[in-house]
Design goal:
Length: about 400
């Protein structure tokens, strides 16, 4: 069997042609493909506004800036996530406060968050960053109620879940990133994600003021709309009107733009997003059926309505043995994630082993199996057989 990674991009001839067309056009960056990609993504998710940026981390950083995170503010997030979910708050000199996960869903435990909020004076915490880890949608309806009760904003880290959703209390499908419940949502277009641009990210919202703020912060804090200018026409070099060339840097922003050829690739990928989701859910069904009666598998992602299956996770006691066994058989599984609070940087800020027992227990047992749309039936069967053989061998 040829090597099977845990995740892999799928690039078609159509994708390549879209990129070539942009490379032959007048714009490589700041051109029309950016807005086209943003509008297509907003339509797909069901939100009003989308802002394309250079990567998911940039999306998180700009989201935190747009919401005004500053020194002394406390923001709650999960320790089971890629470090960027927490780091974006530190970029703004805010304070990250972790809360444990629900061991059944692997998502931020809302009761743990409530305990934090109730144990401190109102106003102590400014925001919450729940993560749709592995592609499972957080119940943002409940988090929205909690956030409103304590005056907090919400950034939904939806990097794992484009196309994912949950059903609210009225039976309405709430798509990840649709802007109905989170103030801002963010996505990543890293090659192993559902939509691959090489690198890239997107911020979505239904809040027009936040949208305009994000556009400004994305490009050095510069505005080109004369209705927003603060300098005089004379200082700008005009007479009765501002000259066409004039622009203003009104605050400290960043160069977090996406290129047009990345956006073109994203459009090609987005056109196949639903088909890719169907395949991911089919693979998840096969894994679930194969492993549901295996006693050595403590927990797994399973089959969940609305799950986008960026990852399929199983928990096993002999994780290191299984990881190496799979590797020896050309299956390159991955571990998601080492708890963020135990990264040396965050330990230096005071976090320590034992702070979040569910997250730490999960880490000791978790392993992510191959999951991507170009995975063949033969490869899925091989993964299943090898996992079962590996589990058996670990007990011999």
């Amino acid at each position: 069997m040829t090597p099977i990674p845990y995740g892999k991009q799928q690039i078609t001839d159509g994708d390549i042609q879209l990129v070539i067309d942009v490379l032959k056009s007048d714009y490589l960056t700041q051109g029309p493909k950016i807005l086209e990609f943003e509008r297509a993504m907003a339509s797909y998710l069901g939100c009003q506004y989308a802002v394309a940026v250079s990567n998911g981390t940039a999306a998180l950083h700009l989201a935190a800036l747009a919401l005004g995170v500053k020194k002394g503010q406390k923001i709650i997030t999960t320790p089971i996530t890629f470090a960027a979910s927490a780091n974006c708050i530190r970029y703004c000199d805010g304070e990250v406060v972790f809360a444990d996960i629900d061991p059944e869903t692997y998502l931020l435990d809302i009761q743990k968050v409530r305990n934090l909020l109730e144990s401190a004076p109102k106003g102590t915490y400014q925001g919450i960053i729940p993560v749709d880890f592995s592609g499972r949608a957080v119940d943002l309806e409940e988090f929205r109620k909690l956030a409103d009760e304590f005056g907090c904003w919400i950034i939904e880290d939806a990097c794992h879940s484009p196309g994912g959703y949950f059903m609210d209390s009225n039976g309405v499908q709430q798509n990840c990133g649709n802007g109905n419940l989170a103030d801002l949502s963010i996505f990543s277009f890293h090659p192993v994600k559902h939509i691959a641009c090489g690198e890239g990210g997107m911020i979505t919202t239904n809040n027009k003021a936040l949208y305009q703020k994000l556009l400004q912060l994305r490009t050095h804090g510069i505005v080109k709309n004369e209705h927003l200018f603060t300098n005089s026409i004379e200082l700008a070099g005009g007479d009765s009107t501002y000259p066409n060339w004039y622009m203003e840097m009104q605050e400290l922003g960043y160069n977090y733009r996406l290129t047009d050829f990345q956006a073109a690739l994203g459009l090609g990928q987005l056109s196949r997003a639903e088909h890719g989701l169907e395949i991911r859910r089919s693979i998840a069904k096969k894994y679930t059926e194969a492993f549901k009666n295996v006693p050595q598998i403590k927990r797994m992602s399973g089959q969940v309505i609305g799950h986008a299956y960026h990852l399929y996770v199983i928990e096993v006691e002999e994780r290191l043995f299984l990881y190496n066994y799979l590797k020896d058989n050309n299956i390159f599984a991955q571990i998601h994630y080492f708890p963020t609070h135990l990264m040396p940087y965050y330990q230096n800020l005071g976090w320590k082993e034992g702070d979040f027992p569910h997250a730490e227990s999960y880490y000791k047992n978790c392993i992510s199996l191959p999951m991507y749309p170009s995975l063949t039936d033969e490869q899925v069967e091989y993964v299943v057989e090898t996992v079962l053989k590996g589990i058996k061998a670990s007990k011999e």
